[in-house]
Amino acid sequence: MTVTVIAGAQWGDEGKGKVTDYFTLKSDAVIRVQGGNNAGHTVVIDDEKYELHLVPSGILHEEKPAMIGDGVVINPAVITGEIKNLKSRGISCANLKISPRAHVVMPYHVALDEMREVRPGKFHIGTTKRGIGPVYADKAARFGIRVGDLLDRGEFELKLRHALTEKNVLLREVYGNPGCDPMRIMGEYLEYARELAPYVIDPLPIVRDILQKGGNLLAEGAQGTLLDIDHGTYPYVTSSHPIAAGACLGTGISPRAIDRVVGIVKAYLTRVGEGPFPTELTDEMGEDIREKGGEFGTTTGRPRRVGWLDLVLLNYVNQINGFDDIVLTKLDVLDDLDEIKVCVAYNFKGDRIKFPPGDLGRIGECEPVYQSLPGWNAPIGEIANYNDLPENARKYIEFISKTANVPISHIACGKKRRQMIPVE
Ligand code: GDP
Ligand code: IMO
Ligand code: MG
Question: Ligand 3: distance of its center to the CA of 303 in Å?
Answer without folding.
Answer: 12
